[in-house]
Structure formats: structure tokens, C-alpha cells
Amino acid sequence: MLSTVRKLILVLIVTAVVVFFGLLGFNVYLNYKKTSIKEQAEKERQEAKKQLEEDEKLKRDIAEMTKQKLTGWTPPSNSYSILSVENINHLGMIDHETIACQNCNSCQNCQAGEECLNMQPKLIFTRKVKEYIHNVLDSIIKHVNSEELGPDNYNDNVTPFLKRYNAVLYGAPGTGKTELVNELVHHLHEKFSNPEVKTLTKEIEQIETKLEKARQQQAAISKKSEETTKEDKVLEQKVDQITRELTAKQKELSELQKSHWVPPVFKIDGVQLQTGGAVTDQPNPEDKLRMIIEKCKKQYFDNAYSDKPYIVFIEEADQGKNVMTAEKGKLLEEFKNFLSTSEDKAGLKAKAQDPNSIIIIATNNFDQIDPAVVRRGRLGEKLNFN
């Protein structure tokens, strides 16, 4: 009898252990399936979200393409920049009496501050490059002062325009091509800038900060109480007074900028002129360049057709090509017409470069450029930086 009871107890224990581990395994299986279902649901949710984002992007792209088809290609805001002493690295030229870089007035206005005054010039340019910089600056100054431009180095009296100083700068990276343009920016600022403009700009920034603080105080008081208090009225009068002061200063600055403007240098990255042509329904590089220049002029002069002088600097210009049709030895071929002053059958000027502008391009691949583009009358000045 005792043996039978022991056997029964043993069977019950074994059964309990089997049931326990069975239930434990079943519970693990259920948790696994539950987790798997959750993961699958999360994965499907993420995929649905991603698909929705892709669909939204596709809709936006289609809308943008439709807009471009209706309105034409529009230069993006990152396709150009307007160079100034605040956003260039001015190194200064060594041993050039005509253009003194040490302790010039614009050094007092650049970001380096007092350190700039003690800075020694670092650039060593060839005589030809120095003469080019001097000729460009001298001609722009004469043009702004309505003086007649004399003959150029070739005694060319036929084209007394700034465009005769169009140039191609070629050489390996880091040889000073961009620094030449920075020198032009620096000395144009030195010659034409008015210190009052910077002073007024700082005053306007201070007034704007003061106005913002007053409005924040006004908003904080309004949150505390809906009723108009004496403090509310005082702040309202203060805001009105600061606003009138700001408007007057902005008007004064606008008038000053109109009478004292610096001939600008527009910098364009050659990659922004690249196109796939008709295949991608984009304009050719020449038309892109023309439209970007018009946008620059509109922003700077408030007039896309202003006849005031300016310089265009195209960095890595050899990238401005039609990738579908470009050939070696024919780079920049599309720019031939833009760099000419050709006339159509009616005797009207084609959409070409402004005669009182200067186009300067930089390239590492001079030997790949179409020879017709770098001849005299288009990019006549060829400056080797190697």
C-alpha cells in the first residue's frame, strides 16, 4: 500500500513538472508570437509611413516640375552669393605700390578687426596679375565717375567697355585664383564703401533688439491680465516710439545705400550652371548664367536691368556644361554667344553680357575649354596661376 502511494505521488510530481514546463513553454511561445506580431505591425507601420512620405515627396516634386514647366526654370537661392569684406578671406598683396593693402580703411571694417591692421600681406602675384587687378579697379572707378575709359593694353579703342577685362584664371587648386577675386572685392569696398552705412546698420540692429525685448515684455504682461493696465499703455507707447525710430533709420540707410553703393562681385558655382538640356527639361548653361545674373542684379540693385558696373566670378566654370552633349576640348562652348555682342537680323542686341560688366572664370582644366571662348573679345585675359 505504501509503495503504491509513493508511486502515485511520484507520478503526480512528474505530471506537475511536465505540466509546469509545458505551460512555461506555451507562455514563451505566446509571448514570442505576441512580440513577433507587434514587430510585424510596427514594421508595417514604418513602411506605410515611409511610403506616405515618398508619396508626399513625389506630389511635391510633380507640383514643382509642373510649376517649372509653367513658369520656366528659376535660379535657386544657393546658386550664387554676393561677395563682401565680411565673407571673404583677404590676404593682401606683397610689393604692389599701386594698390596698398597695409592699414587700408576697409581693414577697420573687416571681421579680423584690430588684428587685420597688424596683418602683413601674404599674396605673391605675377606682374601681369597685378596689372590686371589695377586695370580692372581703375576702369570701374572711371566708369562710376563717368570718365572716359582709355585704350586697353592692346590699344583697343573699339570696345571701351569693362567687358574687355573678361578673364580666365587657370591653374591647379590652391594657386590663388579665388584670392585674386577677393582682392578685387576688398579694394572695391575700400574705394566705394561709406563708413556711415556700417554705423547705421549697427544702430538698426540695436534698435531691432530693443524693439523685440519691448514686444516680449508687452506679451508677458498681456498673458497675466486681460485688462489694460497703466504698464500696458506705457509699453505700447514705448513700442510705437521704437518702431518710428527704426523706420526712420531704415529709410536713412536706404537713401545712403542708393547714393553710396559698392560695385558688387557675384560669385556663381559652375556646378549650378550644369544641365541635362532638353532631356531634363532644363535651360542650357548660357541661359542659366543669364538668369542667375539677372536675379543677382535684382537683389543688389533692385533692378534686373541696371546698367551699373558689376563683376561675375564663376568658380570651377568648366563644370557649367551640358552633361549630355559636352565634348573634350569644347567646354564652355555654350557661352560663346553670351560673351559676344552679336546682333540679330533686325540689328537688335542678342541676350548677351552687359558691356559694362566683367566676367571672370576660374578653371583647373584650361586645355579642355573651347578655344573660341577664350579669344579676345570674349575671355580675352588669360592669367596662368601655375
From TrEMBL:
The keyword Transmembrane helix applies. It comes from the Eukaryota. SMART domains: AAA. Residues 34-68, 197-259 form a coiled coil. One of its GO terms (molecular function) is ATP binding. SUPFAM superfamilies: P-loop containing nucleoside triphosphate hydrolases. The chain crosses the membrane at residues 9-30. Keywords: Coiled coil, Membrane, Transmembrane, Transmembrane helix. The keyword Coiled coil applies. Residues 163-385 form the AAA+ ATPase domain. This is 11240_t:CDS:1. It comes from Racocetra fulgida.
